Predict the 3D structure of the following.
Amino acid sequence: MWLKIKNWTKGIIFALGVIYAAIFVFKNSDSPVTFWWWFGHTPQTTVFYLATFAFAAGVIFTLLVRMMWSTMRQFRKMGAQSRTDKLEREMADMKAKAAMLQSKPGAPGEGVTVQVDQLGG
């Protein structure tokens, strides 16, 4: 029951949107408008074309800004990863050098020769 109501509601909202878009196109396709574009240039076109191109320019601008932000985020992430990798390599080098410098404890007297002279016997 609720699924049918949900589907009918979606269908009605979609149909109303299509009807509104058709009325918008019909009413604004012949309405002239003059807009300022650049100094000394004021072209005249219809409201429909102006709205269409303004919407398209907004979509393109939004996509470019999102791409720019994601690219900047990737550059920051690469820099952080590079710093982390460098620090990890430095730590591995330090540990390797420390391991080479550590003296290993051996058996007592190993490496030291003691010669005992016994007199008389």
